[in-house]
Structures are given as structure tokens and as C-alpha cells.
Write a structure and sequence with these properties.
By secondary structure, this protein is an alpha+beta fold. It contains eleven helices and four strands. A four-stranded antiparallel beta sheet has the order 2-1-4-3, covered by helices on one side.
């Protein structure tokens, strides 16, 4: 029991290191690990880890909560997890299970297709967490003394959930998956910019795209772009043939694979060419 309890907290702290490209994910995972240990030391914090864990699972793989229902669910989870008397209420636990389940089912449709599978996985994991907590609450109400068994099941479920998310995140970072997701997202079109698509697919919110023009570097709206890479970033030139079409500022760990870089460049070139043709004067019918 003690070894399993220790393993859960350490696993979340170590997992945070693998999400260093997306600081919000890393912070939530690290906070979950720290709050897990804090709950062992301070009784009123015994439920606190549930808030940051749920926040992470309803957020992943995105970097911000894009729907108000998910924001309200996460806010309610923080209230129930950090306010000990609320966390003790079986009705509150059951209500949050229903809310999390609804959020998990309805949320992924708002995301680009490349992220929907990961969001569904994380949503199912969040529902599993609160489902187990609800079973425990109902068992206590019924006078069934299986707290020890349910605690072990809960800790094993947390480790399994973390393993599933880490595997999914690693898969999302593979060359084949990046190229496939980028092609799908660019093919869907929509109002999202190339920068936003690249940031999501590459898993790097810090991405900056500067399009090469006669006026220097600009974004897709024609506004001037100045690249200021930090110590952990590099600037990569994107070429179409011998002609530079864009400059990409990104995490230094990305695009070291030349075949991946070539694929990303080719897809970006097609997307930029299509965007250019869609806004050419021949398309303007106002005259």
C-alpha cells in the first residue's frame, strides 16, 4: 500500500518532465504529484489532487479550456477538492461524475481532428477517475466496507491513466503522426492560421511563423513579424524549391529529423499557396 501510494506521486512528478514543451500540462501534472503527497501529510488536502488531475485530463491535449462547460466543471472540481467539507459529500462526488462525463463526451468536437482522439482518451480517463470515486462514495453510504480495496483500485487506475496519456503523447510526437495530423488539419481548412495548426500538431505553443514577403517577415494577416528566439528555441527556414517561403521559430527539440522537416515544409508550402490563391485579385468580385 505504501509503495503504491509513493509510486503514484512520483509517477506524476516524473511525467511532468516529459511535458516540458507545454508548460501548462507540466505544471498540472507536477501539482497533482505534489498535492498527492500533501494529502498524506495534511488531511484537509486529501482530495486536492483531484482538481489538478481533472483539469489536466479535460485540457489535454489542448493548452486552454475552449468551452465554458469544461471551465465550469473544472472550477467546480477545484471547489469540491480544496474545500474539504464539500469533498466529503457523496452527492457532490456523484454530481461531478455526471458533469465530467458530459464534458468528456461533448468537448472533443470543438477541437481539430488531430487532437480529438487524444481528447477522447483523456476525457474517458477523467470519467473513470470520478466513476471510481462515486463507487466509493455510494459504497460508504450503503455501509459496505471496501475502502481499502477501492483505494488500491484507484491508485492502480491513476497509474494506468498516466501510462495511457504518456503513450498517447509519445505517439502524437512521432514523425508519421505529426505529418498525418498536419495534412488532415490543413486539409480541413477553416479559420485557423497556419501558425495555430503547426503549434497544435507539433505540440509547441511558442511557435511563430514569419512569411517571407517583399516587406520582410509578416504573419498571414500581413502584419509585420519579428522573430526573437529564446535560449531554448531555434529558427528554421522553410523552402519551396530554392525559394524561401517562411521562417519558423520553435522549440529546439522539434524538426531535427530532416525527413520530418521536409514533410512539414512541403505541407506548409501547399497551405500557403492555397491561401494565396484564395485571396488573389482574380477572386475579388466586388468590381
Amino acid at each position: 500500500m505504501i509503495a503504491l501510494d509513493l509510486a503514484v506521486g512520483v509517477a506524476f512528478l516524473l511525467a511532468a518532465l516529459t511535458f516540458r514543451r507545454t508548460p501548462v500540462h507540466a505544471v498540472l501534472l507536477a501539482a497533482t504529484g505534489l498535492l498527492w503527497f500533501a494529502g498524506d501529510l495534511v488531511s484537509v488536502l486529501v482530495f486536492a489532487h483531484r482538481a489538478t488531475l481533472t483539469h489536466f485530463l479535460l485540457l489535454y491535449p489542448d493548452t486552454r479550456l475552449r468551452s465554458w462547460p469544461r471551465r465550469w466543471v473544472v472550477a467546480a472540481t477545484y471547489a469540491a477538492s480544496f474545500v474539504y467539507p464539500i469533498g466529503q459529500l457523496s452527492v457532490a462526488t456523484a454530481a461531478l461524475f455526471v458533469a465530467v462525463l458530459v464534458a468528456a463526451v461533448t468537448g472533443p468536437s470543438r477541437l481539430q481532428s488531430a487532437n480529438r482522439r487524444s481528447a477522447r482518451l483523456a476525457g474517458a480517463c477523467a470519467a473513470l477517475v470520478w466513476g471510481l470515486l462515486t463507487v466509493a462514495a455510494v459504497a460508504r453510504l450503503a455501509g459496505v466496507h471496501i475502502d481499502g480495496l477501492l483505494l488500491v483500485a484507484y491508485e492502480i487506475a491513476l497509474l494506468a491513466i498516466l501510462a495511457a496519456i504518456l503513450i498517447d503523447n509519445r505517439y502524437r510526437r512521432s514523425r508519421t503522426t505529426i505529418v498525418t495530423n498536419l495534412a488532415v488539419d490543413l486539409g480541413e481548412g477553416g479559420v485557423r492560421s497556419l501558425r495555430d495548426v503547426l503549434a497544435d500538431v507539433l505540440g509547441d505553443p511558442s511557435v511563430v511563423v514569419g512569411l517571407v514577403s517583399s516587406d520582410g517577415l509578416t504573419d498571414e494577416a500581413g502584419q509585420r513579424v519579428v522573430l526573437r528566439p529564446t535560449s531554448t528555441q531555434v529558427v528554421t527556414d522553410l523552402f519551396e524549391g530554392d525559394q524561401g517561403i517562411a521562417m519558423l521559430q520553435h522549440d529546439a527539440a522539434l524538426l531535427r529529423d530532416k525527413r520530418l522537416l521536409d514533410s512539414v515544409t512541403a505541407l506548409a508550402a501547399v497551405a500557403l499557396a492555397n491561401a494565396g490563391s484564395n485571396t488573389s485579385p482574380s477572386q475579388d468580385r466586388r468590381g
